[in-house]
Each structure stands twice: as C-alpha cells, then as structure tokens.
C-alpha cells in the first residue's frame, strides 16, 4: 500500500468514526484507531459509541465481516453527557485536561460546569474527580430546555479535538521554552566568575 493510498484509507475510516475520542477502542484517539484499522493492526469492532452502525459501515468500507461489538471495549448505549454537581465540586480542575473537546468550563478553586452541547460523552472526566461529583446522564430534559440535546456531529468533535490538541502542544512548547531559558540562565550564572573574597582581618 503506497503512502497516498494509505493516507486516503485512514481518512475514509476516520470519517466513519464518531470522534468521541473516548479511548475505549484501546487507542488514544479516533484517528489512531483508524490508522490501526487501515494497517490491519486492529479489528473493526472496538468502538462502543459507534456501535453496530459504525461496525457495519467499516465492514462495507474495508471488506471485512461485520462482527458484534467486542464486549471487552464496552457496550453500545444511548448517547450521554457529563453533568457536574456544583454543590459538591471543589474546584480541583482535574477534570479539565482529560476532556478532549474542552467541554468543561472552570478554573482551579472555582466551580466547574459542562457545556452539554459540546460534550462527546467520552466519560474521561469522571475518573479523575476526587469527590465523585461528575455523572453521566442521557441527552434529555436535564439540560433545562425540556428538549433532548442534539449530539454534536463527528466533524465538530474532530475540529474541537484538533483545537484542544493544538492548545496542549502550545502549552507544552511554552513550558519547554521557559524551562530551557531557566536552565540557560542558571548555567550562565554558574559560569560567571565570582568576585574574590575580601581578606579577613584578624583582630
């Protein structure tokens, strides 16, 4: 398989995935799973959010048999969103970094809330919470409008994940630059000649 054909295969497979970036497939993101499928390093039945519909689509695209979802990766179910009980939130901010689409608003020592219309239902924010104030709920009347919340499209999820990753990379690059500058400054200070100590005068 040539490079261009391989890239095209990955793109077509990735386009069929729901882009929840939930990692339940065993890969860090949907694109990584698409690459593994294209390289025949992973089966097509490891995406619980996509469920049977995605498996069928992947089977038609790849020519592989449509097999049931692997229970080791989870179970198929209705789309859900994260909900933060603000009365219990302690503002630790541990739920912010795991969110792949920046759907949680908050800062350290402040209450957090979920932008339900952006949430992919990945559940990655649940485990880091030290006070168990995050739960998953169906996309329904709990949003306040009484109308079931529309699930974000795969294209929106993909774009928001890309923005999240770009922001992370900028932050890492900035931190590395700051650390490099501090090390250079420390090295410069260490190599600078020290002034000779004044002779002690005995009395």
Structure description:
The mean pLDDT is 90. Helix content is 36%, strand content 7%. The protein is mainly alpha-helical and 203 residues long. The protein is built from four helices and four strands, in the order αααββββα. The strands form two sheets. A two-stranded antiparallel sheet has the order 1-4. Strands 2-3 form a two-stranded antiparallel ribbon. Strand 2 and strand 3 form a beta hairpin. The chain has two domains: 71 residues, 3-methyladenine DNA Glycosylase II, Chain A, domain 3; 111 residues, Alpha-Beta Plaits (2-Layer Sandwich), CATH 3.30.70.20. The radius of gyration is 24 Å and the shape is extended. Helix 1 crosses helix 2. The N and C termini lie far apart (88 Å).
Order of helices and strands: HHHEEEEH
Strand order of the largest sheet: 1-4
What percentage of amino acids are in beta strands? 5-15%
Helix segment count? Answer: 4
Helix content: 25-40%
Classify the secondary structure makeup into a structural class.
Answer: mainly alpha
Mean pLDDT: 90
What is the total number of structural domains? Answer: 2
Please identify, by name, the CATH architecture of the largest domain.
2-Layer Sandwich
CATH class of the largest domain: Alpha Beta
Question: Topology of this protein?
Answer:
Elements: H1 3-16, H2 30-38, H3 51-62, E1 80-84, E2 104-105, E3 113-114, E4 134-138, H4 154-191
In summary, what is this structure?
This protein is mainly alpha-helical and 203 residues long.
List keywords for this structure.
203 residues; two-stranded antiparallel ribbon; 36% helix; mainly alpha; Alpha-Beta Plaits; 2 domains; 3-methyladenine DNA Glycosylase II, Chain A, domain 3; single chain
């Amino acid at each position: 398989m040539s490079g261009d054909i391989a890239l095209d295969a990955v793109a077509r497979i990735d386009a069929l995935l729901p882009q929840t970036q939930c990692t339940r497939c065993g890969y860090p993101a949907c694109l990584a799973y698409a690459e593994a499928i294209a390289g025949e390093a992973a089966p097509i039945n490891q995406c619980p959010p996509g469920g049977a519909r995605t498996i069928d689509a992947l089977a038609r695209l790849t020519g592989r048999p449509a097999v049931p979802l692997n229970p080791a990766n989870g179970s198929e179910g209705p789309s859900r969103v994260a909900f933060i009980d603000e009365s219990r939130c302690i503002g630790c901010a541990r739920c912010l970094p795991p969110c792949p689409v920046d759907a949680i608003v908050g800062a350290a020592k402040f209450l957090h809330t979920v932008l339900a219309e952006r949430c992919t239902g990945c559940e990655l924010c649940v485990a880091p919470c030290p006070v168990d104030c995050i739960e998953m709920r169906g996309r329904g009347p709990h949003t306040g409008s009484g109308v079931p919340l529309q699930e974000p499209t795969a294209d929106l999820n993909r774009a928001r994940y890309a923005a999240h990753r770009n922001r992370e990379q900028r932050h890492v690059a900035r931190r590395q630059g700051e650390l490099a500058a501090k090390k250079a400054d420390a090295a410069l200070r260490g190599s600078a000649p020290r002034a000779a100590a004044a002779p002690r005068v005995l009395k």
